Write the structure tokens for this entry.
Amino acid sequence: MTESPFSDQGDAFTATLKYGKGFEDPWLVIRGGTAEETKRRVADAVGLEGAEGLTLAEVIVNAKNVVQGASAVASTLGGTAIPRSAPKAEEQAPSAQATAQATAEDKGLDLLEQIEKLGTKKEGQQFYLSNRSAIDADATVMSAMKDKMKTLA
């Protein structure tokens, strides 16, 4: 009898990360022979750092937040994935440098004022990534961010 190439024999653990609620949303399936191996693979797959002190279940929850957050940014705000090693300031486009400078200069302004000042979609994406926790934590700010992103080119 021939073994199926799709068999998960030898992979005792399987983690499935859904990027959204719908069946049509992407899924990421990660298998491993042990909990530690699966945990490492899940963390590596989504770029989690500091997973060493966490259980497999905790890593899966954190990984789910990462993939669903990325999916929400892509589908709701028109975001795209950017590489971990972003170019240095002198290598960035002028608008990216201006955004970085504006973010530093506008520290005293609240998020809603900063959102109003955004001029391009790229600036909006960078601003969101820099302020993700604060934006996600406040429904009013998130709503303003979504509305602004719809108006940007």
Remarks:
- The beta strands are 13-18, 27-32.
- The two ends are 58 Å apart (CA to CA).
- The chain has seven helices and two strands.
